Amino acid sequence: MRGVTEAPRAEARRPDVPRSQSPGAADDAPLLDELMPWSVAPPRLGRSWIVAPDARTLRARWDRLVAAEGAEREALFRPSRARTPASAVGALPGQRTGTTRFARESGPCPDPVRVAHGPFDEQWLLPDHRLIDAARPELWRVAGEPQLFVVEQGYVPGAEGPALLVTAALPEGRSPAGRPGRVRPLFRRPGGREPNLAPGLLEFLGKRYGCEVGARDWLAWTVAAALPSPAGCRVPLPGDRETWRAGVALGGELADVQLRGALSGTRPRLPGGRRPYVRAAVPARPAALAYDAGTEILDVGGGVISPVPAEAWEYRVGGVRVLEQWFAHRTAPVEPGSLEAIGPAAWPQEWTSELLDLVTVLALLGAREPDGAAFAAGALGGAELRAAGPVDREELRAAGILPPPSASRRPASVLDHQEEGPEGQFMLL
User: How many whole angstroms separate alpha carbon 322 and alpha carbon 314?
Assistant: First the structure.
């Protein structure tokens, strides 16, 4: 990206065992796909104008579209094989949107909803099934408190970054490396009912470690210890209770930071009272992002934010710097006259606030990366753990945990109400 000053690599913060280079023992570690059997492909939007960093923009784009008619409306709509203004589609679960063909739509804009548009980048989406190529209704049916989504990152050899991310917002699944992974809800039913785990897994782990193990404990350990591999994300399981408890504690902290303090109820803060501030206002149209490691200054097109720890600037997912991608999503060139061209006239203040929060989140996660790598390596059977030995796939097979039953790979039947189908008809599945 033009205008970006490469910072010296902070080698001191890099773990001894990169997460993209797991030891040979990882081959015996179970796959996330085996332990969280139900997964869904990421939604495929099909048109970029239905998502934006602010809700006002989406309302303006909707108004522009419904004001157009005939060929102009179709051109602005951006038809695809899956969706055109003439497509007949039912409503998304839980959303009150029209089901008439969009060619006849003249009503008000539906309320935008928050989605995870990419790693650590929550944006807004028009939740209208007529506009989305592949919305994955099964995800919408189980979304909402206390649901959390595990987003497995696509495997990229040698790439730096976590193997998976956690979000409470519906994940759009966009991958910085262009290889989206699977989305795995923590629960199979609304209201936090029926964990999406291989039957018997929690009971097995509880007996192995001599303590109660819940779905959130499992999620925390996975955040701390998951490793990418060509076969898919692997989750090494330790042989002793102390390592398990320490990993759950670490993963719980990391997950809470990813979720902006939603688990603890406290917004993430940098240690020692440090806090990034705006030293010079971001201009109306920032063109480039640059970083100076010596001064810890993030230059946003002439605007100045400091202090920005090197861990925040260097934090990557799929080998791509998160801060660079976040900025690019808000400043990339768009086609004149398109709906994508409708946006804020100047850089909104809320974007700056979001950027300050993002710097804090990435700095905290980056500082803990070596700890996560140490737990992953230890769970695979470090010298101090060889007496107990890690839990491998053979032990899980002997306990009847693996392979998971085929029914656990399919969505649960959660419909206890009618959903509106195309043209106002109702269906009950």
Answer: 8
